[in-house]
Design a protein that fits this description.
Residues 25-90 form the RNA polymerase sigma-70 region domain. GO terms for molecular function: DNA binding; sigma factor activity. This is RNA polymerase sigma factor. The chain is mainly α. It has two domains: 1-115, RNA polymerase sigma factor, region 2, helix turn helix motif (Rna Polymerase Sigma Factor, Chain: A), CATH 1.10.1740; 117-180, Arc Repressor Mutant, subunit A (Orthogonal Bundle). The chain is built from nine helices and no strands. It has helices spanning 3-11, 17-40, 43-60, 70-93, 97-108, 118-128, 132-143, 148-155, 159-179. Helix 3 (43-60) packs across helix 4 (70-93), helix 4 crosses helix 8 and helix 7 (132-143) crosses helix 9 (159-179).
Length: 180
């Protein structure tokens, strides 16, 4: 039995669920945090989304059918929770998602948890100008070095579409950085 299969079995077992969940959190907490942080930009929002993600995983693990990797399912939940938060924040502020992204980038420069230099801030600006799906694809490939197969499972789309999205995102980012 693979480690993931054993972890999943333990997560679904009432006897081992608590310990298995702690193991799951140890395995995925940091990676998920950075995945979420690349989407929502804010440390505080990323912490909130991470907590919500783990609550959803804990509450819904019995619904996981094993049709994808556990890793992909977890990332899909984190991605959806991140998007939900962005949409909720934009709606509360009565602004578009693009305006919310611009605001997040502006706030990133003063964020004590952002330790990037000016070039990294410019890269984040360039990424924020991309269509939402291209942002997700670029962040997942560039920052997390996920395989297209895993990204296809997480985003529920084809590898070919992801490769095209990544290629377009890179071209747009290069053009933005050249102009700015």
């Amino acid at each position: 039995m693979t480690d993931e299969a054993q972890l999943l079995e333990d997560l679904k077992s009432e006897k081992h669920k608590e310990q298995a969940f702690r193991t799951l959190m140890t395995l995925y907490k940091e990676r998920l945090y950075w995945h979420i942080r690349n989407i929502v930009k804010s440390h505080d929002d990323a912490d909130d989304v991470l907590q919500n993600t783990f609550i959803k995983i804990y509450s819904n693990i019995h619904n996981f059918k094993g049709e994808s990797k556990l890793f992909s399912w977890i990332y899909r939940i984190a991605t959806n929770e991140s998007i939900t938060l962005l949409n909720k924040n934009a709606k509360q502020l009565l602004i578009s998602n693009e305006e919310l992204q611009d605001s997040a980038i502006t706030n990133l420069a003063s964020d004590v948890y952002f330790d990037g230099n000016e070039m990294q801030l410019k890269l984040q600006e360039a990424i924020s100008k991309l269509p939402h799906k291209q942002q997700l694809v670029f962040n997942m490939k560039y920052f997390q070095d996920l395989k297209y197969k895993d990204m296809a499972d997480i985003l529920e789309t084809s590898e070919g579409a992801l490769k095209a999205s990544y290629h377009l995102a890179v071209k747009k980012i290069e053009a933005y950085l050249t102009k700015n």
